[in-house]
Amino acid sequence: MKTNNQIDFKKIVLFYNIEIAGVEDLVNKIFNDFNERFNEIVKIPLVLNTEGDLLNEYEQQLIKTDLIVCVGGDGTVLRLAQSVIGHEIPIFGIRMGRLGFLTESTAQEAKEKINSILNGDFYIEKRKLVQANYDEQNYFALNDFVIGRKNLGKTASIGVWINGMPIAEYRSDAIIIASATGSTGYTLSIGGPVLMPSAESIIIMPLAPHLTPSNPIILPSGDEVALQVLRDDDSIMVADGLHEYSIQTDKKILISVSKENIAFLRINNSYNFLNRVADRLGWLRKDHNLDIS
Q1: Which CATH architecture has domain 130-259?
Q2: Choice among 8, 74, 232, 291 that is catalytic
Q3: Is 74 a catalytic residue?
Q4: Helices (H), 85-139
Q5: Does domain 11-121+268-281 have CATH number 3.40.50.10330?
Q6: N or C: which end of the chain has fewer CB within 10 A?
Q7: Higher pLDDT, 247 or 288
């Protein structure tokens, strides 16, 4: 793996979720350990405005930095991603949450791995977003879009077209359209496939379908999915579990792989996606030692 020591990180942001225990202590420790090794370190807490977006003054600081060290869980990374779309600023994630599919480091490894960054021992991994166009507006998600009824317990009827061809009318709680990154998110919990993060693909999967197949459909980049709620106006589209948008029955949602990327910073010979998934999901038995040589 080639290093990227030609990248000169002068300004970094420590972005952190203040609601997770121990996060502020870790952020302060990183700040004190590396304050003199970067030109500038800025601490930005995850604080939202009344619309559920990161405060504008914080977003402006995020997009003007060279590197973002994100301390929290995958939810913190997803929230951060919404604020840096279109800028491809490298994100280095430190896991304080439970799973951490998107993060690179544990809290205990943070100092060592930040030193590796300073030594140029890293690479940049870019992951595609999925994009939804609805009512002449574009929306983006790193993980997924979920389209369904606003009220739980009521089945939604949703038509699906792929490249203009009608495929199904799903009667289900919702339809999930996930990116390759999102394959370890919502769709995984309902039996969906795990895709390599480099795959420029999208997954279509119904949630709790009623008398219709639940088989996931995987589409390559360049294909477009159209969805339309066929009955009732009380429906929503949710992006990355963060933002809700009202959906009307007379308008289609067009979803495809976006040209936009989110950039993650990985330490050489440290991050392996499939090993991370196997560890998080318990695929490897602790009482067996598999020969991986």
Answers
A1: Sandwich (2.60)
A2: 74
A3: yes
A4: 110-118
A5: yes
A6: C
A7: 247
